[in-house]
Amino acid sequence: MGSLASERTVVGWAARDATGHLSPYTYTVRHEVVGEVVEVGPEVSKHRVGDVVGVGVIVGCCRECRPCKANVEQYCNKRIWSYNDVYTDGQPTQGGFASTMVVDQKFVVPIPAGLAPEQAAPLLCAGVTVYSPLKHFGLTAPGLRGGILGLGGVGHMGVKVAKAMGHHVTVISSSSRKRAEAMDELGADAYLVSSDAEAMAAAADSLDYIIDTVPVHHPLEPYLALLRLDGKHVLLGVVGEPLSFVAPMVMLGRKAVTGSFIGSVDETAELLRFCVDKGLTSQIEVVKMGYVNEALERLERNDVRYRFVVDVVGSNIEEAAGAPAN
Ligand SMILES: NC(=O)C1=CN([C@@H]2O[C@H](COP(=O)(O)OP(=O)(O)OC[C@H]3O[C@@H](n4cnc5c(N)ncnc54)[C@H](OP(=O)(O)O)[C@@H]3O)[C@@H](O)[C@H]2O)C=CC1
Ligand SMILES: O=C/C=C/c1ccc(O)c(O)c1
């Protein structure tokens, strides 16, 4: 490896010491990565070699715009994604699916003691994606009534974080398949099947917010009807088609439809401490790189509870990439 730019850090799993020991912590969920610091540039002050750290969705920003100055760098128009983007040196960013990751210390968060690294990985995206809007929109007070629409990777963290804040949580799902796990394992207080018109009508005007994680087009009006005065519908799912509702649906009740994008580095560090304090973890299935194709097929079938985490160090990455193993 060449000399390291001053504020950059190598988070890795390919590092071996003189005895052949591999860095032990190497978990990735597509772009969020938990690993061990294997090398630091001369001006890195946030962490040291050997620290267990995480990198989320963003690895670059302009540092000059209003969002950057307000420490919400995820809203910088020059943000650089940690995967499938182009870094300032013209090279593609590859998220966790690379032998090491070189990243500016600004985008590195410490994984606190008490949080298993594989558990921490989904918190760096799914976790902070729900934590950030709850904080930003003032939805943290105990006793609030929240709805989590779509019980997947993001939604399951929504249930856990909202419950840890002391909220009454209703899962709103497309089927009844996840009822038992939502109530018994995740601790939700109520469960609504969105196609059950009677149950939806009975729940009208009852929620302070809905965290909407549905990734496909869906009508908003049935969910806006669930909100009570000043209720907020927070769009998190990436839907590439227009979503619509008639204006009185929000006027009569001063309701808001808004959105939110992951969370800042500061919010991520705060969430990790929150999780340790509250004893919160993500619900995951750890797999090896060679299982990735099957994992993708299962994702399409809505058949994962609730995140796959790839154990990169435990995988033969060269073999998985099709290269001969050495
Ligand atoms: N805003 C942000 O910063 C972020 C946004 N995202 C986006 O959030 C969305 C959710 O992500 P994630 O939780 O990982 O996704 P998952 O696939 O894990 O979960 C999505 C859930 O939506 C529900 N759903 C309802 N209808 C459909 C459908 N037709 N197809 C698939 N799911 C459906 C399902 O829940 P059920 O079975 O309960 O109906 C499903 O489990 C994605 O669009 C993702 O890109 C992700 C991270 C950050
Ligand atoms: O357009 C916004 C996309 C957000 C996003 C962030 C992270 C992630 O894993 C996604 O699936 C979507």
UniProtKB/TrEMBL annotation:
Annotated Enoyl reductase (ER) domain residues: 2-310
SMART domains referenced in this protein's UniProt entry, alphabetically: PKS_ER
Keyword hit for Zinc: yes
Listed EC numbers: 1.1.1.195
Pathway annotation from the record: Aromatic compound metabolism; phenylpropanoid biosynthesis
UniProt key word NADP: yes
SUPFAM superfamilies: GroES-like (SSF50129), NAD(P)-binding Rossmann-fold domains (SSF51735)
Domain of life: Eukaryota
Main EC class the enzyme belongs to: oxidoreductase
A GO biological process held by the record: lignin biosynthetic process
Record GO terms (molecular function): cinnamyl-alcohol dehydrogenase activity; metal ion binding
Keyword terms of this UniProt record: Lignin biosynthesis, Metal-binding, NADP, Oxidoreductase, Zinc
Cofactor: Zn(2+)
InterPro entries named in the record: ADH-like_C (IPR013149), ADH-like_N (IPR013154), CAD-like (IPR047109), ER (IPR020843), GroES-like_sf (IPR011032), NAD(P)-bd_dom_sf (IPR036291)
UniProt-listed Gene3D superfamilies: Medium-chain alcohol dehydrogenases, catalytic domain, NAD(P)-binding Rossmann-like Domain
Span of the signal peptide: none
Chemical reaction(s) catalysed: (E)-cinnamyl alcohol + NADP(+) = (E)-cinnamaldehyde + NADPH + H(+); (E)-coniferol + NADP(+) = (E)-coniferaldehyde + NADPH + H(+); (E)-4-coumaroyl alcohol + NADP(+) = (E)-4-coumaraldehyde + NADPH + H(+); (E)-sinapyl alcohol + NADP(+) = (E)-sinapaldehyde + NADPH + H(+)
Cross-referenced CDD domains: CAD1 (cd05283)
Protein name (record): cinnamyl-alcohol dehydrogenase
Species of provenance: Panicum virgatum
